[in-house]
Specification:
By secondary structure, this protein is α+β, with helices and mostly antiparallel strands. It is built from 13 helices and ten strands. It has three domains: about 120 residues, Butyryl-Coa Dehydrogenase, subunit A, domain 1; about 110 residues, Butyryl-CoA Dehydrogenase, subunit A, domain 2 (Beta Barrel), CATH 2.40.110.10; about 140 residues, Butyryl-CoA Dehydrogenase, subunit A, domain 3. The radius of gyration is 21 Å and the shape is globular. The two termini are about 25 Å apart.
Length: about 400
């Protein structure tokens, strides 16, 4: 096992950090206060190539392999203070682009991927519903076949990027009552310009405020059959085969945030003095920072293992499930410790540490809650019935 980055990966990491520090998040405080998506920073990400990192060159991307992509995502999270912008990028890549890349037809890839890499189209994943979140198979959104089209009807909620998205990956029920729950779902590419697609409400959030989130309605939307991903009835198989990318690569940037918080706390612990000495000399502070380092290195290892598995074309549901739980919960612990290390300054909005905690708190919830992930992990370990058999190990 070789844990060293290649010369090209080290160069990419350095250039990405420099780009993020120089170009992104300049008006973060205002953007965060207003809960506003920064179209200018999105365009800068597109120009740098961020929105096409895992996409092959023939579709307008950079063609990075999974390990190199993970390196770049970590660097982006480290260099960019606007965690909401990075979260929007991750939703675009791992909630939409990856579905096209893995399951789209050549026509679909040619039509959508180049403008998505160039930032002209913003992607989103419309999955959750008011009464169906973790229980994917109970969704009620339907897509009824009508000649050469499907008629899509339903409501999706908690759609990250939803209010600004141009194209959605939508899961809907296409089967009848005779079909099994898993065989009754299909996946569609739905463009926001189709009649009947509308964001009916934008949702205010505790953190990640520069990622817009909304409730999106599909009111008898006529979707061409050519926009079906894969075959009819394959939606659940597509979802389970693709979700491991979201539940790992989306968290690569969080490792970068953990490193940034560690360095911030080290600097503060060395410069802040109490009782005649730096607070870092007190065991209560030093041990918290030591634990930050432990969590950082272990989080990086599990994520890079998933990236290596995907580079080798191997199944990674178990590893990505572990990664999702550990990285998201580790960032929360690190952010809470950072507030504690900074004391009153950590609680004030002027210093930005409290924002890091608010942003981190969403991690154990989105892309599948930690409780659900532990149920999936239990099933993968052979404890049948932990999630009523809803999740399987198909790749």
């Amino acid at each position: 096992m070789d844990f060293e980055l290649t010369a090209e990966q080290r160069k990419l990491r350095h250039e990405t950090i420099e780009f993020a520090r120089r170009e992104l998040g300049a008006d973060l405080e205002k953007v965060e206060q207003d809960g506003r998506f920064s179209a200018a920073d999105w365009a800068r990400c597109a120009d740098f190539g961020v929105l096409g990192w895992p996409v092959p060159g023939e579709y307008g991307g950079s063609g990075f392999d999974p390990v190199t992509t993970m390196v770049a995502l970590e660097a982006l999270g480290y260099g960019c203070r606007d965690n909401g912008l990075v979260f929007a990028v991750n939703n675009h890549l791992w909630g939409c682009v990856i579905y096209l890349l893995l399951h789209g037809s050549e026509e679909q890839k040619s039509r959508f991927l180049e403008p998505m890499c160039a930032g002209r189209l913003i992607g989103a994943h419309a999955l959750s519903e008011p009464d169906a979140g973790s229980d994917v198979l109970s969704m009620s959104t339907t897509a009824r076949r009508d000649g050469d089209d499907y008629v899509l009807r339903g409501t999706k909620c908690f759609v990250s990027n939803g209010p600004v998205a141009d194209v959605f990956v939508v899961l809907a029920r296409t089967g009848d009552e005779a079909d099994s729950a898993q065989d009754g779902l299909s996946a569609f590419l739905v463009t926001a310009d189709l009649p009947g697609v509308r964001t009916v409400r934008e949702l205010a959030k505790l953190g990640l405020r520069s990622t817009p989130m909304g409730v999106v309605e599909f009111d008898d939307v006529v979707v061409p059959a050519a926009n079906l991903l894969g075959r009819a009835g394959a939606g659940y198989a597509i979802f389970t085969a693709t979700i491991e990318w979201e539940r790992s690569f989306m968290f690569g940037s969080q490792v970068g945030v953990m490193e940034r918080l560690l360095e911030t706390c080290l600097e503060h612990a060395r410069s802040r003095r109490q009782f005649g000495r730096p607070i870092g000399s007190f065991q209560a502070v030093a041990h918290q920072i030591a634990d930050m380092k432990i969590r950082l290195e272990l989080a990086r290892l599990i994520l890079y293992r998933v990236a290596w598995l995907k580079r080798e074309g191997r199944f990674a549901l178990l590893d990505s499930t572990i990664a999702k739980i550990f990285v998201s919960e580790s960032l929360v612990q690190t952010a809470m410790a950072a507030v504690d290390v900074h004391g009153a300054r950590g609680y004030l909005t002027d210093h930005g540490v409290e924002r890091e905690l608010r942003d981190a708190l969403g991690g154990p919830i989105f892309a599948g809650t930690s409780s659900v992930q532990r149920g999936i992990l239990a099933e993968l370990l052979g404890l049948t019935g932990a999630l009523s058999g809803q999740f399987d190990d198909r790749g």
